[in-house]
Write a structure and sequence with these properties.
Layout: H1 10-20, E1 39-43, E2 46-49, E3 54-57, H2 60-64, H3 73-85, H4 96-107, E4 114-118, H5 121-140, E5 146-150, H6 159-163, H7 168-171, E6 181-184, H8 203-218, E7 223-228, H9 244-254, E8 258-262, E9 286-289, E10 301-305, H10 307-311, H11 335-349, H12 352-369, E11 377-383, E12 386-394, E13 399-400, H13 403-415, E14 418-419, E15 421-422, E16 433-436, H14 444-461
Parallel strand pairs: 3-14, 5-6, 5-7, 7-8, 8-9
Antiparallel strand pairs: 1-2, 2-3, 4-10, 9-10, 11-12, 12-13, 12-16, 15-16
Helix pairs in contact: 3-11, 4-11, 8-9, 12-14, 13-14
The structure holds pyridoxal-5'-phosphate.
Pyridoxal-5'-phosphate binds next to helix 5.
């Protein structure tokens, strides 16, 4: 093979994939007898695979990423123009698109001030963990170093991010992990019966107070940060109960704990506000983001902090170790911010936040209506165009539908030209939530097509 592939020589491309590509999150045995799926083209919400099969993509590139849809020539043009002018300069220097995008982003995030560029969600989270650790050393004699994370939340695939990860199946066999990451309970009201002492009323306040108990157990003087997803994604599309976030902020203020919100999935429009936390009227100290920042047109992630966090790293001539001694090679790649600028302009130009709220409400209603027909749908929940349907064997006991059956429902939809997702390989026995996150441009017709496929699949599989 000399690399001169003819794009039309599909069997050769499939063979090369089968022989050499190590797919993410995949068991490869099935590829011995069936072809790996290769997506070749996309336009709007639709994609075509290597055999020309058309599908509507209800999960924005499989992993909640392509917020503005496929085939955006204006992003491709912006990236091309920038790459020809200057593709990269790393290290300590800035770039024109980096400056412009930072100003646009901060404008959408009142109270925030500084943008640190990197290239994946895991990496942005790692930067935050490093900042917390360094602040602990600089200001608290190394003591205030612990980072709290929640059961069912996911923050990435690196060893540090996994230490901060509440999804056991992702972590098993990859330890040992670094010390100082402490697990706290989730806030999934639908499953509160599994949490000892959970009350009938005011569950949100109770769930936040459970975290406070752990802070007190560990000693607040040892806890540096709390790292949470605004709406938990792969852990089950968990929307926070009433009062939860407000109480979390109070707790962080009371014990001088930094609130790090992981907006890798929710960020840049997915839930109908620029950022998921903005639904709850709270101010974070650090925000990580990745997927929707450039809708997958370039690899870019950011860690955004307040000026107060930045100030803690201000120059101190008496201490040469004082600044944030961190780098990200591809944080210097200009394609990322160039794509992110145009991505944000599209969301504004096409009123996609408003569309996300409207279409999100419509999709929530349509999926909820399926509950009358299918007892297996225990709960439909979500925010904006970030929705989940939790499947159970029995609504009274809430016993999760077996993963194999959930997989069969996803496969049936896919066979019928609708790509949906499911929580998978995260929580053994509880990977039972179907996930929906179509691009923010979707219409009622698109949603009807997706919901019809789910309706059909539930009927056929169950
Ligand atoms: N944080 C959340 C909430 C995620 O869902 C993910 C990935 O799905 C990550 C972090 C990690 O992002 P990446 O895969 O870009 O490292």
């Amino acid at each position: 093979m000399d690399g001169t592939f003819n794009e039309n020589d599909i069997s050769r491309i499939v063979e090369a994939d089968r022989a050499h590509v190590w797919h993410h999150l995949s068991q490869h045995k099935p590829y011995e007898t069936s072809d790996p799926r290769i997506i070749v083209e996309g336009k709007g919400l639709r994609v075509w695979d290597q055999y020309g099969k058309e599908s509507i993509d209800a999960v924005s590139g499989g992993v909640w990423t392509v917020n503005v849809g496929y085939g955006r020539e204006s992003i491709a043009d912006a990236v091309r123009d920038q790459l020809v002018k200057l593709n990269f300069f790393g290290g300590t220097v800035g770039s024109i698109p980096g400056s412009i995008f930072s100003e646009m982003l901060i404008d959408k995030m009142p109270g925030m001030s500084r943008v640190y560029y990197c290239s994946s969600g895991s990496e942005a989270n790692e930067k935050a963990y490093k900042m917390v650790r360094q602040i602990a050393h600089k200001r608290f004699g190394g003591k205030k170093h612990k980072i709290l994370y929640r059961d069912r939340d996911y923050h990435g695939s690196t060893i540090g991010a996994m230490a901060c990860g509440g999804q056991d199946e992702r972590n098993l066999q990859y330890g040992p992990f670094p010390d100082g990451f402490i697990r706290v309970p989730h806030c999934l009201e639908y499953r509160k019966h599994e949490q000892a002492g959970a009350p009938e009323e005011n569950y949100g306040i109770w769930a936040a107070n459970e975290i406070e108990k752990i802070i007190l157990r560990e000693g607040p003087e040892t806890v540096g940060a709390l790292c949470l997803e605004p709406v938990t994604a792969g852990g089950g599309v968990i929307t926070p109960p009433d009062g939860y976030w407000e109480r979390i902020r109070e707790i962080c203020d009371q014990y001088e704990i930094l609130l790090h919100i992981d907006e890798v999935v929710c960020g840049v429009g997915r839930t109908g506000t620029w950022f998921g936390y903005q639904h709850y009227g709270i101010k974070p100290d650090m925000v990580s983001m990745a997927k929707g920042v450039a809708s997958g047109y370039a690899a870019i992630s950011c860690l955004v902090t307040t000026e107060a966090v930045f100030d803690m790293f201000k120059d101190d001539p008496s201490d040469v170790l004082n600044y944030f001694r961190d780098i990200s090679t591809f944080g210097g790649c200009t394609a990322g911010p160039a794509a992110a600028i145009e991505n944000m302009k599209i969301i504004e130009r096409e009123n996609l936040l408003e569309n996300t709220i409207n279409m999100g409400d419509y999709m929530l209603d349509q999926l909820s209506a399926l509950q009358d027909k299918h007892n297996a749908i225990g709960q439909v929940r979500g925010k904006g165009l970030f929705l989940g349907a939790e499947l159970v064997t029995d609504r009274a006991t809430k016993e999760p539908l077996p993963e194999k059956t959930v997989g069969a429902i996803v496969a049936d939809c896919s066979k019928n030209g609708v790509i949906i997702g499911a929580t998978n390989r995260s929580i053994p026995g509880q990977n039972n939530t179907l996930c929906f996150s179509p691009a923010l441009i979707c219409t009622k017709d698109d949603i009807n097509q997706i919901v019809e496929a789910v309706d059909g699949a539930l009927g056929r599989v169950l």
